[in-house]
Amino acid sequence: MSVKTIFFDINIILDIFLKREPFYAASARVFSLAETKQFRGCLGALSYPVLFYLLKKELDRDEAIAILKKVRIVLKAAPLVEKVVDSALSSDISDFEDAMQYYSALEVKSGYFITRNKKDYPAKLMKILTPDEFLALLRAESAESNSP
């Protein structure tokens, strides 16, 4: 069985590293699944400068860079290629940055897009889930596979 890919939205990374409650625990659990290689974790290349900008509002430069380095060790950077840009430009997704994230996730063949802003993304081509929903799905799949 191949390792499934989960794509992280920016808000999930912020929840983890800024320890934003009540979202921190579930987001950190999903991140740990990528950290322990149970899933292939991805983050859009576009997310790095956006995260740096947002982290710098709360932390100093060195702390922000340290967080991005940790994220980069755990998560693959989904490449920002012309196909992603073209798809985002042609998309019905109202927010352009959200469209870029969505098509970056599709480019790396992500099966799951983890976000707290589900309404911002179409669920036609991959599962759009909150961290809590993703963890519940894993529990349900585990229970099914363990039943006689």
CATH architecture grouping? 3-Layer(aba) Sandwich
Unreliable runs, pLDDT <50, ≥5 residues? none
Q: Determine the strand fraction and express it as a percent band.
A: 5-15%
Q: N- to C-terminal separation?
A: 21 Å
Share of residues in helices? 40-55%
Q: Name the helix and strand elements from N-terminus to C-terminus, one letter apiece.
A: EHHEHHEHHEEH
Count of discrete domains: 1
Tell me, rounded to a whole number, the average pLDDT. Answer: 92
From the spread of the alpha carbons, the general shape counts as: globular
Strand order of the largest sheet: 3-2-1-4-5
Category from helices, strands and their pairing: alpha/beta
Biggest pleated sheet: 5 strands, parallel
- Number of E-state strands: 5
Q: Number of helical segments?
A: 7
CATH superfamily: 5'-nuclease
What CATH calls the topology is: Rossmann fold
Radius of gyration: 15 Å
The CATH class, by name, is: Alpha Beta
Keywords:
148 residues; alpha/beta; Rossmann fold; 5 strands; globular
Provide structural commentary.
By secondary structure, this protein is of the alpha/beta class. It has a single domain, classed as 3-Layer(aba) Sandwich (Rossmann fold), CATH 3.40.50. The chain is 54% helix and 12% strand. The chain has a 5-stranded parallel sheet with strand order 3-2-1-4-5, sandwiched between helices. It is globular, with a radius of gyration of 15 Å. The mean pLDDT is 92.
